[in-house]
Amino acid sequence: MAGEGTSLKSRRLNSRTPATAEEDGAMRKAEGDQSFGAVSNGWVNVEHVISRKKQLKKKAEQLKLHLMKEVDGHFSDFVENLIEESTLLESASSIPTFPAACTEKDGRKGRGVKSSSEHGKIFISRRSLLDELFEVNHIRTIYHMFIALLILFIFSTLLVDFIDEGRLVLEFDLLVYAFGKFPIVIASWLCMFLSTLMIPYSLFHLWASGYQASSHKTLRSLFFGTLFLLFQIVGLGFGPTYIVVKHSLPPASRCVVIFEQVRLFMKVHSFIRENVPRVIESAKEKSTFVPMPKVTNYLYFLFVPTLIYRDSYPRNPSIRWSYVLTKFAQVLGCLFYVYYVLVRLCIPLFHNISQEPFNLRVLVLCIFNSILPGVLVLLLFFFAFLHCWLNAFAEMLRFADRMFYKDWWNSTSFANYYRTWNVVVHDWLYYYTYKDFISIFGKRFKAAGMVYVFMVSAVVHEYALAICFGFFYPVMFILFMGFGMLFNFILHDRRKGPIWNVIMWTSLFLGQGVIFCLYSQEWYARQYCPLHNPTFMDYLKPRSWTCYLQL
């Protein structure tokens, strides 16, 4: 390092061109002439001294700026090279563990087996970005501002309730309703988790153990693959959805079941997708070793906050229980924050709108009045789930790779925003949707692969909202497949500069206002304008249009 520092200094000194040296000499000569003229007959020209100080100060600021740019550039290059070298060393030094019954010869053959994980995501030990930023006082002040706003929401609600009711109302009836019938949620989750733990692993174990000795490998794979797809469609697909609809669960309880359904579905797909190629490659090499993951590895993967399966992950040496309690407390605080945002900003607005005749002015005012609560809920969801919830589970499981998101707020393009907003889901979509699409159809169809990814994401988002709210209103699907995909191609990575970040935030604010306004209007329309003997098509039609036409 000392040698590198010396060579770096010498390069900087040698980088000064002859023209620059001549300019410095001329400047020194001019400065000498000026200083000689500044003192005449024993009198000092005060104006000249002040002017000279200003010039020196300006020159020092320019040199400081130039020096900071040089240091920042060299430091960034050094850090990037260091990360690349450490990643290569970690991937080269990671050796898969084999069962004790495996012989040394089988072990050497097993080491030659290649899987898709060698060309996929590499996990390294790193902290979440907000944990690092909150160590800076300027950034932590923003966090304090959100806490102050929550305190004001609480005081406002308590004062209004005291004025209206003559007493303090601390019933939280909205939260009680939203998370109602929670025992059914717990029972549903246990059924989903136990079936996900036993059935896919058992099917994979039976398939892999007899694959190499089988004389009908294709038929064997089709049989077990069909059983696996039946479990995905019926067990994880139809089953939880039927329970949610059959028992008429409230919105928040529905969200818990549906989100867990989607999460387990993606995890099971990753487990099969990562391990099947290893077994096939092992059979091609005539190896007696079958790369069978342990059930403990699979169990750990079902809880760890990532959707990409690996036999092992970087682990921290200990658990900081105070950190875990802090993150769960922040999740609880965000939950109450959303409650007060809905009570103070949303319910009064949409309760009044639902009783007014519908026109263009009402719609425009509704959208712009919904921007503030929509953005607050978006930021609270990001902080509560992507930062606090995932970090809490990562800490309890000693999972060391905490890059669940990146600096999406600095994005100057929607393409970068989609990559950095939710890294956990993006990694799954990239490796198992986009890359698999490209490997099947070729690199000429990259644009079609991006459209396919947007379609999958839009369908899943719309499915989750339709089940959670209890009605089909494809606003999210249209925004994803329409404006989202359009912005992805128009506001691409070549867009740089602050103005594009402003455009990204403006579009994001407006989109949240549209989503919040239209879904809330539809919700209130279905509460105040129920249909008698509705048909199947009535469930698909937007109720808000019919309700407002009646008004």
UniProtKB/TrEMBL annotation:
User: Looking at the record's lineage, which domain of life comes first?
Assistant: Eukaryota
Record InterPro entries: MBOAT_fam, Oat_ACAT_DAG_ARE
Q: Which UniProt keywords apply?
A: Acyltransferase, Disulfide bond, Endoplasmic reticulum, Membrane, Phosphoprotein, Transferase, Transmembrane, Transmembrane helix
User: Which Gene Ontology cellular-component terms appear in the entry?
Assistant: endoplasmic reticulum membrane
The active-site annotation reads: H461
Which catalysed reactions does the entry list for this protein?
(7Z)-octadecenoyl-CoA + cholesterol = cholesteryl (7Z)-octadecenoate + CoA; (11Z)-octadecenoyl-CoA + cholesterol = cholesteryl (11Z)-octadecenoate + CoA; cholesterol + hexadecanoyl-CoA = cholesteryl hexadecanoate + CoA; (9Z)-hexadecenoyl-CoA + cholesterol = cholesteryl (9Z)-hexadecenoate + CoA
Its membrane topology, per UniProt?
Multi-pass membrane protein
What molecular functions are annotated in GO for this chain?
cholesterol binding; cholesterol O-acyltransferase activity; fatty-acyl-CoA binding
Give one GO biological process term. Answer: cholesterol metabolic process
Positions of the region Disordered? 1-32
Q: Where in the cell is it found?
A: Endoplasmic reticulum membrane
Region forming the signal peptide: none
Q: Mind telling me which residue stretches traverse the membrane in this protein?
A: 142-163, 175-201, 222-243, 324-342, 362-390, 445-465, 471-490, 502-521
Q: Identify the Pfam families for this entry.
A: MBOAT
Homology family: Belongs to the membrane-bound acyltransferase family. Sterol o-acyltransferase subfamily.
Q: What is this protein called?
A: O-acyltransferase
